[in-house]
Amino acid sequence: MIFKNYMKLFIKNIKFLIISFSIFFVMLIIFSNPKNRLTEFKAVKLDITINDEDKSEESKNLINYLKEKHNVKEEKIDEENAKKKVFDSEITGYLEIKKDFKEKLKNGEKPVSLIASTKDASITFFKIDLEKYLNYTLAGINSNVSKAEVEKTLKNEVDVKIVDSNIYAQNKNKDLYRFTFGMLSYIVFTCIVSILANIEATFKNENLQKRMALAPYSQQSQTMQQFLAQALIAIVLTTILIIGTTFSVGSVVPKDKILYLFTGVFLFSFTAVSVVQLMVSITKNVKVIGGVSSAFGMIMGFSSGVFLPMQILPKGVVLFSKFMPQYYLIKFFEDVNFNSFLTLLLSQIIFISFYTLLAIGIKKYKLKEAV
Questions:
Q1: What is the layout of strands, in order, in the sheet containing 93-97?
Q2: Closest to 48 measured CA to CA, from 107, 148, 123
Q3: Core vs surface per residue 97-125: b (16+ CB within 10 A) or e
Q4: Which has the closest alpha carbon to 35: 144, 176, 221, 238?
Q5: 324-362 pLDDT, tens per residue?
Q6: Which of 19, 97, 114, 188 is the most exposed place for a label (fewest CB within 10 A)?
Q7: Comparing C-alpha atoms, which of 181, 212, 226 is closest to residue 360?
Q8: Residues 293-306: pLDDT tens digits?
Q9: What is the pTM assigned to this prediction?
Q10: SS3 content of the chain, % helix, strand, coil (to 5)
Q11: Could you give the CA distance from residue 73 to residue 137 in angstroms, rounded to a whole number?
Q12: CA distances from 140 to 110, 143, 153 (A)
């Protein structure tokens, strides 16, 4: 009976669904419109601040090379100020050349660190120049090629623009689907919480409660039906949104990653269901649930890197976001593979278990208080 009532109420909310989907699909189309993608390679000089911690001949060679390509200023500033300058668009990026630059490069360690907004597509040009220099220099070191020969090769632009254009397109497509799926996860969470909260509020109706009490089902059976109905609704909502997203950016998503991406979003939808369970255990006031869920969703979205890249967020905010389930989903979108999926799966199981057990504990406490 619970399951049947849930599905009836879900169908009654169809108008709300259509409005919500229309708004969300417009957002996805705006942010992922292929016409907005840059397909032609053009040289772009960016404002880059560099902090040289190594101060070696190799690090100075890197700086000189980048000065030929971009507007480079050498200045040592702390990480928080660097993030602020990037966020305020005072600079496009902040590059730190780490101490023992050459040794780190040879040993496969990270010789530099870059702070830049992933929402600014132009930073891809700088990344191309930086990666090209590091790769050529490493190849020269490993093959005992002279520095002069490496510099000559770097200055040779024959066919390099074609390669750079392909790399740019790959990086741009990666940023596109990563951002779109991040936005999709936020939309999925908001939709599921809003709709299930409305349905739960309807269950407060006294006549419905009396009918449920007379039903030939145990409390455990009714709870199971409720969970199955919520899970089915979450799957339906997520499927519809994923289909829309596929039409929007499906062509730029690598085929070997698409199953991982969709599975990750479905997994996150079940986390949203567990959040609803927790909120409903605290209160069934739909306005309170709506307000709390909206605030929770926005905080989670901003701190987890949905709206702003994590690279420019304060360390405290990033640390706080690790207690949010969406943080692990966004990290998964940044590096989609089997190992990162296992990490996502484990994290969501932990969050789902925590929210569900906490909801059960609150409900039991309330029942004892009511006796």
A1: 71-74, 47-52, 93-97, 112-116
A2: 123
A3: bbeebbebbeeeeebbebbbbbebbebbb
A4: 176
A5: 999 999 989 888 889 999 999 999 999 999 998 998 888
A6: 19
A7: 226
A8: 778 888 888 888 78
A9: 0.61
A10: 75, 5, 20
A11: 22
A12: 18, 5, 10
